[in-house]
Write a structure and sequence with these properties.
The protein is an alpha/beta fold. It has 16 helices and 15 strands. The protein has a 7-stranded mixed sheet with strand order 2-15-8-1-7-5-6, with helices on both faces. Strands 10-11-13-12 form a 4-stranded antiparallel sheet.
């Protein structure tokens, strides 16, 4: 279960701001006071995967660290929302890759954000940590691929920061180095996506993934090397990853289509939106089809159990009526509707440790 409020990813940004002296912020993680901080987000670097590959990541494995829980679902959109706001998923509303747009009968793909009718600042209305940093006199920057600049997800999660496009590892380090020296206090986020994309195509732990991890290790080492005096580097991730072999295809199983209006979420964290009057039948059908290979819960029970943390007004309607979360070697795909997902090797989203636990590693310069 996500440890919201005691040791979750959502607790990191507020703790960093508190350490930087921003008034009203709470240092849940007990970080030391400092004038400059860099948070490196390595997409797809789970705690278990990191610890299993000390030869490929000697620097990272030598850093002082502890695991955090990502939150549910353990996926990029949701975790970036938590890192952007310091809130659990239920607070910021980026509740998965594909969620319902209430009252429309449509899904929003929060990664691609191709629906121009959905305003990112309205869909994710919470004040970002970068806006709070700036209000507290801290210079805030966000360093990531230029491709992401101005995207819907970036406008939902990086607003308030100076967006610095960087299209190589060298540029990530160089732009972060300059940003860390801005103003009297600085807060810099560096986002790197290549490990995750490699895992999706080739699998977590594959030769390609291990080679990519070596570059991630170098990136962290170089960022630590360019820290200004009094600076700290915090390395974390948005989720881990598994390589499920078994597939259940919701597009090919009649029982999984009956009474279903929309199918959202992801292969390891499915949101099933039922047609009016069909909720009980959909819940029963999905429970029977998946058996003991997945947790299948009605939305209200998952909310009550604390999967999402406290829900802000209007957020519950974005979540499926039924939530199906594989915990075995299983992915729930939809080959016709989502061919891009059905072919993936590495996946994530569930609450098993390999997907849920992410690192919090620290390096400082006196």
């Amino acid at each position: 279960m996500p440890r919201y409020g005691t040791g979750a990813l959502a607790d990191l940004p507020g703790s960093v701001l508190a350490a930087l002296g921003v008034p009203g912020e709470r240092d849940v993680l007990g970080l030391p006071a400092l004038p400059r901080a860099c948070v490196l987000i390595v997409d797809g670097l789970g705690w278990e995967q990191l610890r299993a590959h000390p030869d490929e990541a000697p620097y990272l494995n030598a850093m002082a660290g502890t695991p955090l829980t990502a939150g549910f679902p353990a996926t990029t959109v949701t975790s970036l929302g938590s890192l952007a706001t310091g809130l659990p998923p239920g607070g910021h509303g980026l509740l998965g890759v594909q969620v319902a747009i209430p009252g429309t009968g449509r899904l929003l793909n929060c990664l691609r954000w191709q629906d121009e009718t959905v305003d990112p600042a309205t869909f994710q209305p919470a004040r970002t940590v970068y806006e709070r940093a700036a209000a507290g006199g801290v210079h805030a920057s966000y360093v990531a691929l230029g491709l992401y600049r101005g995207s819907g997800l970036s406008r939902a999660t990086a607003r308030g920061a100076a967006y610095l496009p960087a299209n190589s590892i060298g540029q990530l380090v160089g732009r972060a180095e300059r940003a860390l020296r801005e103003g009297d206090r600085s807060f810099v986020t560096v986002y790197h996506a290549d490990l995750d994309s490699t895992g999706h195509v080739f699998g977590a732990g594959s030769a390609d993934w291990r080679h990519q991890l070596r570059f991630v290790d170098l990136l962290a080492e170089r960022l630590a090397a360019v820290l200004p005096p009094g600076g700290a580097l915090y390395v974390t991730a948005d989720h881990g990853m598994v390589d499920p072999v078994e597939r259940v295809d919701a597009d090919e199983e009649p029982a999984l289509r009956e009474g279903v209006a929309l199918l959202g979420g992801d292969a390891r964290a499915r949101y099933v939106y039922s047609e009016p009057g069909a909720h009980a039948d959909v819940l029963a059908a999905w429970t029977e089809a998946l058996g003991d290979r997945a947790w299948v819960y009605p939305r209200d029970e998952a909310v009550e159990a604390g999967w999402f943390g406290p829900l802000a007004p209007g957020m519950a309607e974005r979540i499926g009526d039924v939530i199906a979360v594989p915990h075995a070697d299983l992915a729930i795909v939809a080959s016709h509707r989502e061919p891009w997902l059905a072919d993936m090797v590495g996946m994530h989203g569930s609450m098993v440790p390999a997907e849920q636990l992410v690192p919090l590693l620290t390096a400082t310069r006196p």
